[in-house]
Amino acid sequence: MAKTRISISLEQAQAESIREHAERSGMDVSAYLVHAATRQMAESDAIEEQFAGVDALIARAEREAADLPEEPVATSAALTEQERREVEEALGLVHGRDRRGRRPGHAA
Fold first, then answer.
1. pTM surpassing 0.70?
2. In the chain, which stretches have pLDDT less than 50?
């Protein structure tokens, strides 16, 4: 199989570290870098394949959302007292509460 030369630039410390790791692995630097890159590419491909379905769903949802009409943003004045309590509870779960039971950065 024909080989192609690729030139890369590294900091001296990086080059020395790669050389040392290659030697400990019993490989020359080229074989070590090819092995590392091939392994990283296989990992990336596997992750992309695993999430392809989710990515497609997100892309479809974004396309559909772009076609939705703008709706006015609800304000706390438009919420019932029960809805306000539910929102506060949900925000407390997300952001936590201080020792007095208040959300950080939220006035009493």
1. no
2. none
